[in-house]
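User: Please predict structures.

Assistant: First:
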Amino acid sequence: MIKASVVGASGYTGVELIRLLALHPEVEIVSVTSYNYKDKDYSDLYPSLKGYVGMKFEELHKEDIIKKSDVIFSALPNGHAHELANEVVAKHKKLIDLSADFRFNDFSVYEKWYGPVPPIDQRIKRVYGLPEIHRLELKGANVVANPGCYPTSVILGLAPGLRCGLIKAEGIIIDSKSGVSGAGHNPTLNNLYTECNESVKAYGVTHHRHTPEIEQELSYLSGNDVKVTFIPHLVPMTRGILSTIYCDIKDDVTLSTVREAYREFYSKEFFVKVLDEGQFPRTKDTYGSNNCHIGLAYDEHTGKLIIISAIDNLVKGASGQAIQNMNSLFGLPENTGLDFPAIYP
């Protein structure tokens, strides 16, 4: 059994990790930590897990937790995983970090968007943990940077088109919409029911922190420098991300060529579903699952290829993908503990 600990287990990504790990056939949860809920029964904070998780929150005593764990999931806020990673790697264990701390190849990009980076242990072998793109690199990693939720939906939507050279790298426009759970468990004024119900708003316009993460991975796929226009929106639902992407296809490329390339690119992927012609994703159809649905259309009036992708921001966009990465690190089939459909209705 893989002995797993979740650091920062009281937030939404933390409880989703615990929910999925509690039912994973190859995992034993050995520790859950929280600064605010020390000694409180986990199922008292989240009664949905009564009968499934009988643990108490504990303080983060890194040496003790690392000693008894094979893998540590860090669901701490940005800026807190670097020091933890150094200690985890020094003890020859694995860290899967759900913050942005290890997502960038160039730490100066992280510093520009998030803040200073402390010294990093040279033994850290980090990889951007989008398995559909970086599966081979995961095998030798000891620190996995779990992707952001918006970037997951966007990169999976664009990967075949850019990797196969079917779409132009210039002028890509991304309109993404997310449920309120993406803002986290801590209450804020803008996320109160009366503030966001019956309303849709754009935020982070022209400066959302996920922009450089998206551009880094799209540039890798394209082989060219890619810059995008990325505008996220908050919609009044609990879970889900729907990304609508507008781009130009190259000369002599048809929609049927694009669709065939997408089906081939994802033909061996368990979690990515390319929909049939005339079908388009809904967040409802990925709710509670680790799946990504992708739909394609060509607007003859404007000459634009339209790519629509849907994921659950807490599963494929966070905790489910983290477990998919853990499975890969430990040589398990990636769908172990994640082989279930969306919740419907």
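Second:
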Amino acid sequence: MSESADLVVVGAGPAGMSAAATALAGGLRVALVDSGTAVGGQFWRHPPEHARQSIPTEDLHHALPEYRALCHALSAARAAGRLDLRLAHHVWSAVREDDGFAVHVVDRRQAPREIALALRAPKLLVATGAYDRQLPFPGWDLPGVLTIGGLQALLKGGGVAAGNRVALGGTGPFLLPVAAGLAARGVEVVTVCEAAHPAAWLRHPGPLLRNPRKWAEGAGYAAALARHRIRVRPRTAIVGAQGHDRVTSVRIASLTSDGRPRPGTERHVAVDAVGVGWGFAPQLDLLVPLGCALTDSADGNAVVAVDRGQRTTVAGLYAAGETCGVGGAALAVGEGRLAAESVLADSGAAPVLRRRQLAAVRSAVTGQRAFARALALAHPIPAAWSSWLTDETVVCRCEEVTAGAVRTARAEDGAPDHRQIKQLTRAGMGWCQGRMCGPAVQCLAAQQRSYEPAERLVATPVTLGALAGLDELDDIDDLDDLDDLKE
């Protein structure tokens, strides 16, 4: 099956929704693709439509009026036949064609059956968001140890709390809304371990002062935590977890300025669930194979390089949201609008935003991006976090590769980065393709935080049956490509 549009937008989170709505308002035909069963992405995740009345989650959301306005705009465009909304469609590849792009997807609405099709358009906008960035520690592979985003997804998507007695750890303000949301549903949040220290913000006060909504939001969370008597421990980390069939306790420790556990400060806390998060990593799987230039961001991630209009270095290809750097939903919405305006201009269509409106959006995006940078500098990954690991600690959970194996590959075989480590140990060759372990392996190998994901022809697992259903496999034209596809 093959369908055509003026613009394909991959990702129906805040950035993708705002981009699609703006492009539609400008008269373009848009195909909006997302792997989820509803629009909104992770930020505006809701229970299934039939269960929303019985599972209240309104208190877990921000900017709901904007979400509803975007939903209304998309619904109206779909009813008018100008929006092709493809939910439960997983994009596994995007390639250049002479007149634009072909986006290869599998329709999984009738899983386990998969139907392959290609969406074609002269313009492509990628807004695939980000996923939780993790640092391994002894016991992190026990059942009951989740990412912070996983805990919140359970709350937003089903009103489900992962446990009755929960410890949270990592760094960044995302710990606070998750703690508040759990506590509001009767969960005992025994501790919140924040690796950074609040004084770090004093070195970057400008962006915080220029974004009063941010500190007002933070003050609200602080009040909620105080009301539920949840203690936030600065410069402290979860450095181990214990249990047999599932986690039963965590080991926490105060940290030195470089992130090493302070001797004599370790203590054990009984829990039945754990949430850990060290920020987020952009989802670049579709952008890297297309040849987009990347750049470093303040949080140690490689992100796609874009101009003021969200154009990448590849003609006709645009990016918005967390792929350009993790910065929150408001920033993603603004970047989505800017990207769509660029698509309209490059397509010869009239703009949707007037000059002053466009300037206001640009100004807001600039301010929010500055805040994101200050946030990353105030909440860095501890430089010496790898000192928490024993040689027996599993780093790659899919392939069960230990920290000792990674260290040996670096010390004895001279592996310089995560790509070479992958060849020597299989770390990153499992189901998640390095999404969970890639940044950690890079740090262990190169002693630096900067992480650039490897290029993959297949962005998400796809069945051979779906591939066999394609009319053509023009992009698989040599043995190396076939080997990569098998991998």
